[in-house]
Amino acid sequence: MAERAQYEELARQFSAFGAVKREMGRILPSECPSGSAAVLTLLGRYGDMRLSRLAELLSVDMSVTSRHVAHVAGRGWIERLPDPADKRSRILHLTPSGLDQLDELSRRTTHLLAQRLSDWSDDEVGRLIQLMTRLRASFDDCTRTPANT
């Protein structure tokens, strides 16, 4: 297990990571804020889903998810289809326009990362992906409560 000083430094680095997220947010089209981009990205990655599943993946409550969904639906990027298993529910589905917007988001993000990480080797980028994937997995269990210190 790492030493306390390493965890303290890691916490400082997470705070600094906010600058990376802000820069990534600045490259988004004005009509597609980060919450909308997250909705499109998750639907692109996981396919059609209910609002409740989307809220779970976003790790936000249903009211926040509903606002994001209303925004992307209002732009014609998704449609809400009847759920064949439960006609009272809706399934969120990317439209062709939504797929185009998702492609644009991917293009912009990929371009920014390629610029900023141009002096990184392929192995370094791969290692970062592995570590970030592992870190995210360590935080996936929302029912786990942190130990008191």
What does this 3D model show about the protein?
This protein is mainly alpha-helical. Helices cover 64% and strands 11% of the residues. The protein has six helices and three strands, in the order ααβααββαα. Strands 1-3-2 form a three-stranded antiparallel β-sheet. α2 packs across α4 (62-74) and α3 (51-58) crosses α4 (62-74). The radius of gyration is 18 Å and the shape is globular. The model has no long low-confidence stretch (mean pLDDT 91).
Task: Summarize the amount of helix as a percent range.
Answer: 55-70%
The computed structural class is: mainly alpha
In terms of DSSP E residues, the strand content is 5-15%
Order of helices and strands: HHEHHEEHH
Mean pLDDT: 91
* Low-pLDDT residue intervals, each spanning 5 or more residues: none
Q: Could you tell me how far the N terminus lies from the C terminus, measured between alpha carbons in angstroms? A: 16 Å
How many H/I helices?
A: 6
Q: For the CA atoms, what is the radius of gyration? A: 18 Å
Number of E strands = 3
Features:
mainly alpha, 149 residues, 64% helix, 3 strands, three-stranded antiparallel sheet
Summarize the topology.
Layout: H1 4-26, H2 34-46, E1 49-50, H3 51-58, H4 62-74, E2 78-83, E3 86-94, H5 96-116, H6 122-138
Antiparallel strand pairs: 1-3, 2-3
Helix pairs in contact: 2-4, 2-5, 3-4
